[in-house]
What does this fold into?
Amino acid sequence: MPGAARDDSGRGERHRRSPKPFHALTELALIGGASLLAIFWIIPSQTAPASAFGLSPSMMPITCATVIALLALLQCLVLLLRRRAAPQADRAAGERPNVFHSLQIVVAAVVGTLVLASFGLVAGGVVMALLVSLAIGERRFWRNVMLCCAAAAVMLLVDLSGI
Amino acid sequence: MRGVADAFSLGAVASVFFGILLGYIIGVLPGLSRPAALAVAVPITYSMSPISAIAFLIGVTKASAAGGATGAILLNTPGEPSSAATRFDGYPLARAGRATEALKVALYASVFGDIVSTLALIAVAKPLAAFALKMGPVEMTAVMIFALTFIAALSDGSLSRGLISGVFGIFLATVGLDPESATPRMTFGMIELFDGIPLVSATVGMLAFTEMLVQAEAYLLRRKRAEGTADKIPQGPGRLSWSEVRRLVPTTVRSTAVGIAAGIIPGLGPTIGAFLSYAIAKKTARPGDRYGKGELKGVAATEAADNAVLPASLIPLFAIGLPGSVSAAILVSAFMLHGVVPGPLIFEQHPRLMYGIYASMIVASFCMLLVGRVGLHLFAKIMAVPITVIVPFVIVFCVVGSFLERDTAFSVYAMLALGTLGYLMQRYGYSVITFLIGFVVGPIFELSLRQALIVTNHDVTKVLQHPIAMAFLLAALVAVIAFMRPGKGESGGSAS
It folds into this structure.
């Protein structure tokens, strides 16, 4: 695979960006900010007050959020102190993965789920398979027809099996 | 002997065989995890005799563990979390045209780990259960801190990012009712969240759905670069030479021991066992070993450990009634369904059943070898299926599997949300595997921590009175120091 953006295993090393102060501080702001939001707003507002006995129900979530905030700070310091640049992604700008394609697949899955919940497994499975296939750029008519037929058959089998 | 004869009856052997077949198919399919398969299989055993029922479920469990490696090797999509570590070397091997070799090694290592672990269960159940009895909440908390730290250190990117992922997993596991007072936490008024975020949705979303997004993205990139869209990779002869087998033996034996230990210690389970085993194998690598780039030893290490966990996890279950893994916990419900209560009295009350189960486990191991070997090339055909067919089908299975868990669309939306989150985490260097392990052990960790705080009366210094806990905490500290060293963290990770 070209560049450091992806290893042979297919799982990304796309995170290996240069440890510029801006990236480090942005990461800290996002994760640290989300942790603080959880500690001071989400957890208190979404946890009912407990009775007198035992430990507080919010003890564990607050501990986790605090640890995450501290680790985000540590991560930021490590990135700021480390001067050695990590390998840069060498993809051309036009070759960067487009998040929009992934978003299309998520939307296809959501639409398929809505159909599944309303019209059952077979209809949902067929619609979802077709939409996902279209989302990943498959435009051959007969390939899509066969995919829909196969999806219908499998869903029918699942439906009839009573699982 | 009557118990052994029961295990060799036609009904019991047929149950094992069909359990193996079903387990293998489920294991191969990405997104259908071992616990999900077991949970689906338990109701099928209503009308069976206790020995047939347990034999069938053991068959499902063992084969789904072995089958999980197929997806990990061929598609980089593990059938279940415990097979995730198999991807590190299995998938690069498949990409290098050595898929058949990797599948063979996975199968033989699985069967070896399984048989040895079963023999260990038979031989040392009672003496080793005495060790498990010593594990109090303080020790359990320390064990889980050690396990999470170690696994975070193995994740791609830095140790701190790995730990953030793990702790975030524990954080999300706290959603739902508080274990002590049953107070709703972060449920946003949704009744569906009272039971917490569905485990199957998290597993399927974070592993299978995320992987499909990544695969689709990679396919579109390849197409854009006009590299051709052929997905077929020329495969080698797939034979294993004797020198390769000899090279694999020490790793397989060591990993089986790690798997047995991970099975005996409650709470660790197959995922941690497989990752720990991989980490140890990688750390003890010899010059020339290509861990992370396509090393057969890596596949043997994870698969032997993964399959050694289940039989070993039955040791504390049979001895003290404490399940050592999620699968063992589901097996408890099957035992109860047939009027058998696992625990110290099981050997006195149901000796015939116990020996029957032991014999069935051995039969299941050999059935697994037979089915796996015969079906090896059949399963390898998955490589010939184009990615434009695999992605839609796997996504449909992800959605349907999540939907069937609670029969509501909520589980699917949770799966999609977590899948999208996993995709973003992976994109920015946060390990989804560490997240998932944190999420799975989260409830046990919280319970142990709460109990430990009560036991020590909130006095941290009292941990010094627990030598086992101290040993694990020191080991965690050593792991942190070792992996924080320059050149170890940012560049050395490869776990996810």
About this structure: Confidence is low (pLDDT under 50) at residues 487-496 of chain B. The CA atoms of residues 26 and 37 of chain B lie 7 Å apart. Chain B touches chain A through 80 residues (CB under 8 Å).
